[in-house]
Amino acid sequence: MLTANWFFVLAGVVCAAGPIIIHLLNRRRYRVVQWAAMDFLREAMQRNRRILQLRDILLLCLRTLAVLLFGLALARPGCTLRQETFDDQQPLHAIILIDNSLSMGYESLEGSLLAKAKDRARQLIDKIPAGSKFSIIPTCGSGAAISRDPYAAPDDALEALDKVEIVDRSTSLQQAATEARRAGESFPELSQRIVLISDQQRLNWPKSADALREFPPMQVVDVGPADWENTWISDLRIQDGLADTETPTTIVATVQHRGAAPRRDLQVTLTMGDTVLGERTITVEPAPGGKEVQFEVVFNSLSEIPRPDKPLFVPLKAALAPDRLAADDERFLAAPIVAALPVVFVDQYGEANEDPIQGLVGETRPLRKLLAPKTARVNAPRQLVKVRHITLDVLTTDILADARLVVVAGIADPGSTVSLLREYVGQGGQLVIAAGGNFDPAAWNTAAWLDGAGILPLPLAAEPIGEVPEVAGANLQVFHLAFDSLQGEDYFELASTSEAELRDLYGAPFFFKSVQIDASPETRAATLEAEIKRLDEELTWLAAARERREELAVKEGQGTLTETERQALIDDAAKLRELRPQWLTWAAAADFGTAADEPLPTDSASRARALDLLARKNDPRILASFELAGRPPYLVSRRIGLGEVIFSASGLASSWNTLATTPAVVMYDRILRSMTQATLPRRNFPALEKFTLPLPTEDPNQTVLLARPGQKEATEPLDIGAISTDQRGVPIVGLYQRGVYRVVGLRVAPMSAAGDMPEKPLWEVPLVVGGDAEESDLAPLSRERFDEWAAGGANLLWIGPTDDISLAGVAILGQNSWWWLALVVLALLLLEMTTLAWPAFRPEPPVGSAISPAISPVSGS
């Protein structure tokens, strides 16, 4: 098969048509004029005309062939042949993919799996013929400077190979295949040998063989251990999402084990810095799910006290006794410690009119008791939340400006507050709406649905399900939650609680009345379509306004801005405030509050896909349903802007159900704490290539330094730059290792020396990085499964631990043909010049000699 860059071939063919077209046009550019005197010259020109025609045809052929061969030379053609033997005279392009995922740190007597992979790669590099190219690609990325461009010298390739290090990520074979294709495009004229050296972890392979058929020819070299066993910490979390300094906090570490036998007398330790917070000794079985280990901690001895506007993030570490894969024997968590976060509760009575003795109990009372329980220190300044209990008529921007969460329950009609709450949620606020009390679904649907532009996740039906006991009497209808609808949601899972116990827990409440939520496919499709249209209009206007602002900013700088253009800027700013209100005081410090809207693609198909993807992120999600015909929803959530709304179809404290009198009400504690946590700055991350951290302060004289895991001092400087119109931040790259990264801001005087740094930081932010827990499951892909895939059309070859990597395969001959084609082009150009110059070297005939026979009769007469 002929291989070439066909773009250059096509360009050569097109350009080669140029001389032909010019030749044809030149034949028609003269207008024939009959002139009697020219008849005497016609006979004399017959012989010269034939010579000129032959010369023109020769020049046409030379020029056309030169242009065509020049395009072919640029295409670097070659002949692809299938050969089974290795030819050490033919240069190759060796594309070596090194699996540097976490599992490759597994230790054996021969060293780590990564060390074995590097040895196999070195053996391959030593066998590659002279003149070859080498691509060294760590499949999970690397913090070291490894070029993606091919290396020309084996020593450079070996140096790059030595730089490959373990990172806390998982390998994807599809991503590796993409990287191999991209590397092969650098030298298409060379035969490629793609080799992936990995432990063949089952996790990294696709679920089916269909994706493998699209892979380029590849050898997969197995360096996995013959026998393996591993224990790791798969998760570390606060059970309720948030912690305060007044009440005990439950920290849950999940330990998993794979192997032939259980691991006994395993010690699990929880530490905060150098302080041991707890130790547990456990036995963990080699079973899915692992074992949860709980620690009760009171954060009452912190060096700094959290404030309502400044939560603290305390790095915690859970660790095991080391095994052969030591990197996953510890996991970190930046635990959020909060105090007096403002939470607004809106119900039918508010604080002024609520009187439990007289039976005037607001619908939000059970949730207020969950988040702010009455303790001996009821007015303690460091409690979890600061409750604001009001009625709907006093709800204003000032009350919501610093609120992290709003709960509205038992309200008959939201009225004009819908737009205010929509602005609040759009900026990142969290909203819970619950029925109960005098809730009127028809009034709510009219005022708060607005075809998806309101604050309801989905529209409501006017008629409810069931009636409260005092109305239903003997016709009382009792229904329960569908337990299977709760599974898979973190809100409903509790540490160290079996499925049977959870089933009993959530089966305890009786429900008598509920609002009907319209979650039909037609309604959801219409909601999605309306959201796509809204996003299209909004993002289109934002892009146009951004271009207009940049254009008019230039004119303003030049002093040529007209009054009409100035008014256009003012109008744009007003509409931008309407689309993107910014009155939440804490939203500017949250990471999501600094993200700019990405411009949409220009072509219609890509634009439609991008809009569909954005709209589906805001698609309503059913969290829980009732055990009734049609499975009517109980809890529905929906993202609006940067925040979230959760709607509860039944009440919280009224006779709509018995939820508040059962332990199942704990689900709302999990929901409210998780929603509140979502308003805090993000401090826990997977391993990633880059993250931009907004600066906590805007001090112009500050410098920012970074300390990576294991470093005691922050010494790596970070560049400060603008990340939005009114926010600066620092980019942090190469977060590939698990552990705690500390970002430190220091105030430096403008005239201070470079090494003169203050002792006390201006601020310090911990960032915790942890990889995918599934990466620690070392179960390999079986050889039998691989052979099935290969037989099904996958172009892959398995290389066992004792097998040699083969260099035989497809060969590309004529790799230097472009050089000979260039010589031919040069020869053609020389021949053309010689043809053009030839008449100058011919002897000129005497003037008049060519025509004297023709004119002699005339002169004789």
Description:
With 861 residues, this protein is α/β, with parallel strands linked by helices. The protein is 31% helix and 23% strand. It has a seven-stranded mixed beta sheet with strand order 17-16-18-19-24-23-22, sandwiched between helices. It has a five-stranded parallel beta sheet with strand order 6-3-7-8-33, with helices on both faces. The protein has a five-stranded mixed beta sheet with strand order 25-32-31-27-28, with no helix packed on it. Strand 18 (405-409), helix 9 and strand 19 (430-434) form a beta-alpha-beta unit. It starts with a strand and ends with a helix. Mean pLDDT is 84; it is low at 78-82, 375-379, 592-596 and 849-861.
The total count of helices amounts to: 19
What structural class should be given to the helix and strand makeup?
alpha/beta
- Percent helix: 25-40%
Shape: globular
The N- and C-terminal alpha carbons lie at a distance of 76 Å
Largest sheet: 7 strands, mixed
Low-confidence stretches: 78-82, 375-379, 592-596, 849-861
Strand order of the largest sheet: 17-16-18-19-24-23-22
Tell me which oligomeric state these chains represent: single chain
CA radius of gyration is 38 Å
Report the mean per-residue pLDDT as an integer.
84
Beta-strand segment tally: 34
Strand content: 15-25%
